Amino acid sequence: MGMGFQGALRTCVSALACVSFMGVSAAYAQQAGNPEQEMKQAWAAAKAASKIGPTSIELRDQATLKIGKNEAFIPQPAAGQLMHAMGNSNNPDMLGLIMPTSDDEEWMVVAKYEASGYIKDDDAKDWNVDDLYKSLKEGTAAANEERAKRGIPALEIQGWVERPHYDAATHRLIWSMAARSQGQPANDPGSVNYNTYALGRDGYISLNLITASDHVDADKPAVQKLLADLDFKDGKRYADFNSKTDKVAEYGLAALVGGIAAKKLGLFAVIAAFLAKFAKVAILAVVGFGAAIAKFFKRKPTA
Q1: Which of 17, 57, 121, 148 has a CA positioned 20 to 30 A from the CA of residue 84?
Q2: Are 126 and 249 a contacting pair, CB within 8 Å?
Q3: What is the pTM of this model?
Q4: Mean pLDDT calculated for residue range 113-128
């Protein structure tokens, strides 16, 4: 499935070129200052901070996440620095990034915690998937205004990759939507945000897989396993909710698929092209192949 390290070098020979692959305009590149230097510093910080599996990761005071032997976890603030270098906002709710360390995988999982309060899940029984899709489409159109301000192409959603489904026993939600940037060549694979959520007493943790549309079937088992290996701590579980003392969220479960999700959908989609062109270099930097990444950055850009 993967293009391999040498293929990544051939298709993306400088960090500046990677920024152009992401579809970021020249105006945004100028705003970012020196994209190549920013990217280099971000990967250096990610390498220094990364935790290599198998290991258990503390997700604040809320939960623990087990990552496998072929995975690496990049915590904050290095994760936020890397996301910003890729053209995304540095969201304070982000917990970190998970990446594969094997040479034939090209994906990223963004872990976030939202202290929304206890989310009632009874609306899942009466979901109208067509209404959820309409809400996503409207929300994406509104979010395109923010992307335009950042010099990022507008996003068009194309349809469900996986229709929303909720497991009431484990309080896990999964849904996935395909999207592509306006003007993207028809033969280029679109981007996919494969979204998974675990509900807790005080809010929810999301593990969102970012990959190309032609890789999602092969890559989604990785995030499904991460979701299964996420455990809320004692006192933080969904079942620990106390109706007399605890905060209840202002929205229900459907909002995680509808309007709230739409505002965030495109902020991750912009790096799908980056993953397709640069993932192998990124992975090598994270797991310690500093010489390879240093050599990469010394190469001169090509057409």
Answers
A1: 57
A2: no
A3: 0.75
A4: 89
Q: Is the dihedral of CA 82, 84, 89, 93 positive or negative?
A: positive
Domain that residue 115 falls in: 4-297
d(CA 85, CA 293): 16
Q: Which residue has the higher pLDDT, 116 or 192?
A: 116
The one-letter code for the residue type at 98 is: I
Given a contact cutoff of 8 angstroms between Cβ atoms, the answer to whether 73 and 57 are in contact is: yes
pLDDT at 111 over 70: yes
Residue 303, domain member (yes or no): no
Residue for token pair 């390879």: 292
